[in-house]
Amino acid sequence: MARRIGVYVCHCGSNIAGKVDCPDVAAFARGLKNVTVSRDYQFMCSDPGQDLIIRDIHEHGLDRVVVASCSPRLHEKTFQKACARAGLNPYLMQHCCIREHCSWVTGDKAEATAKAKHIVEAAVLRVRRHQELHSREVAVVPDVMVVGAGIAGIQAALDVARSGHRVILVEKSPSIGGHMAQFDKTFPTLDCAACISTPKMVAVAQEPNIDLLTWSEVEEVTGFVGNYTVTVRRKARYVSEDICTGCGACLEKCPTKVLSEFEEGLGMRRAIYRNSPQAVPSTPVIDAEHCKMLTKGKCGVCQKTCPTGAIDFTQQDRREVYHVGSVILATGYDTMDPTPMTEYGFGRYPEVYTALQFERLNNAVGPTGGKILMKNGEAPKSVAIIHCVGSRDKNYHEYCSRTCCMYALKYDHLIKDKVGHGAEVYNFYIDMRCFGKGYEEFYRRVQDEGVTFVRGRPSEVVQENGKLVVVGEDTLLGTRLRVPVDMVVLCTAMEARADTTEVARVFGVSQGRDGFFLEEHPKLGPVSTASDGIYLAGTCQGPKDIPDAVAHAAGGAAQALALAARGVVSISPTTSWINPDICVGCKMCIGLCPYSAIEFDERRHIAVINEAMCKGCGSCAGHCPSGAAQIKHFRQVQVFNEIDGLLDRKPDIMALIGDIYETANRAEA
Amino acid sequence: MNQEFEPAILAFVCNWCTYTAADLAGTSRMVQQPNVRLVRMMCTGMVDPKYVIKALLSGADGVLVSGCHPGDCHYINGNYKARRRVKLLNEILPQFGIDERRLRLTWVGASEGNEFAATVNNFINEIRELGPLDVRGMAAL
């Protein structure tokens, strides 16, 4: 029976119609073989647009539909659902793109229209060979894994846990809290960071639905949406979490001192340590690289001191396997190391600090007990704060880190508050970006406190007569400046974690140009990724301040919960299929399959696809010497037809390749 | 070479990286010459060498295969399989009188819209230099 194809060409307002003559394309499609009805319409994705398709399916008895509009990555599902509502199998629809790949990128109208015709013809030829396919529904494991326990990970974990679902919260450092635990105050309200984050950290520890795995890293992720299997490496802590009471006696007796990472190198910690007395969990960890017992086999002072006998030097890394339905990545950010920017003298001049170091100087449990002091123990009389160090800079990061203007204003206030109003504070900025709720008001307040703002990025910091001199230009006044100060704070860029690439590979997500994880859609899918069931939360997706990170994390939790609450997920039927009549049993595909989804049937001497494990990558189909392996919805005959439509067919050439082509077609039919 | 020669080029691109980059190039309005038409594949690993040959025999003057950067494949390693197959085709095509430059493999990541537009424009220019692929003439030999 002849096919009855409906073709729908979308104007997308003027997005497509501005370059492509849509009525002409629709008229062209009407002349193609098997096309029963062809229409153009202003917005196919709108309700009336979809109704148009549904009505035609009923009235004209269409058995195939082609929609030419935006990218299938945007609206393929919309039109598949419209077809399904009309009782047509959604895989009998072909969605082709005449916007992103045609109208938006082609300069000439006639050329754009010609290209659109090719694209539509290819879709019409392809859809003729489409087959009905049916999605499978599989149960979703209701548990959720959250990776990273900074403020975003904590928020996501608490949101999920409070709904009654179990959360596995994995953190690679010894305690949770992330960067926020290092801060002293938060802008613009000047809340104490610990006062607002510690209750959340304690809530995590006390929440019965959260399994907290600190000092742990995810090694491997297998499976698919709703059914992931995650291998977590529990690094040897050498302190038993079950026995330790967190009394801290060991911390005082340990004879080995090491520069503290948590103090950003401004203070020392012992070889057995925890980040702060408020750390959650309070169990310390032994740094195997520096511990004398673990490196040289002698010492063991902590073991002798521990009143509960919690120290265990025989601990080994161990691996635990978890089954979860979805994963929320909340791995956070790194701050850029300003050492390569030699012009600012970080690492050379002792009074040049990074912003995180300055946070520690302000923190009540930091190395100076919360006093802003120079290395000589005196308070600085003047401080220069340099904005955009490594941000908005083509040589480092083109993006804006979004937080520096605001925390610089917070520092302005804290210096005036702690050192005294006589202290001089200079901000060297490019633009002040105070866009959040209450931010502009805070900027105004700090200006009134007598802080100096200089528009212009300084060229260098030099040391002269025991003072640091910031050399730059006030671009508003057009004058060159040399400002002598006691202390310089560099507002270093937020950047993607150094191990983002490896983490991206483990979880099967992509990185954007800026190095951060890439979201599914920059506006409408900011927490989903290309991998279903893997969501993003917080700064691992891009620089964010705390309110934005928390909101983003709550969004990630909502996505994970939506999946868990529904309980089932439909799995794409576009898997591989090996034609048992053609397969010769060469086993070539078995070695190629990255998911071990192909088994060998010894009795029939053929390879067989395990559809539950197949992801439809086509590794087998791309190689199969006999053409037995084919990906459903990407079968050879479908691709060949698409190729024919995209090119100006030359019928006499067809005779030349009849051998390959016709044989293949016959095999498929 | 014919001054008005406009090459027809087919691109087999993977859904996760290059197709997304092409979307991004579109959203960013990066104007490209209209000669390249995309065939969306789920992975470059499913590009059967037959598809490339079929395209060249059906009138394509050049074929682009483009997927995720090495190590970034959505399906673990499909792009490496594509690389092997393209290498094989690069050996075979010249034996049939087809310049191997007519087939190109590139890696364009999902966020590289500008890279995609540049790749497309460069490839079109190179194929324009090479001139039309005269399969009919070759068959007459």
Automatic annotation (TrEMBL), chain B:
<feature type="domain" description="F420-non-reducing hydrogenase iron-sulfur subunit D">
    <location>
        <begin position="9"/>
        <end position="131"/>
    </location>
</feature>
<dbReference type="InterPro" id="IPR003813">
    <property type="entry name" value="MvhD/FlpD"/>
</dbReference>
<keyword id="KW-0560">Oxidoreductase</keyword>
<keyword id="KW-0408">Iron</keyword>
<dbReference type="GO" id="GO:0051536">
    <property type="term" value="F:iron-sulfur cluster binding"/>
</dbReference>
<dbReference type="Pfam" id="PF02662">
    <property type="entry name" value="FlpD"/>
</dbReference>
<keyword id="KW-0479">Metal-binding</keyword>
<keyword id="KW-0411">Iron-sulfur</keyword>
<dbReference type="GO" id="GO:0016491">
    <property type="term" value="F:oxidoreductase activity"/>
</dbReference>
<protein>
    <submittedName>
        <fullName>Coenzyme F420-reducing hydrogenase, delta subunit</fullName>
    </submittedName>
</protein>
<dbReference type="GO" id="GO:0046872">
    <property type="term" value="F:metal ion binding"/>
</dbReference>
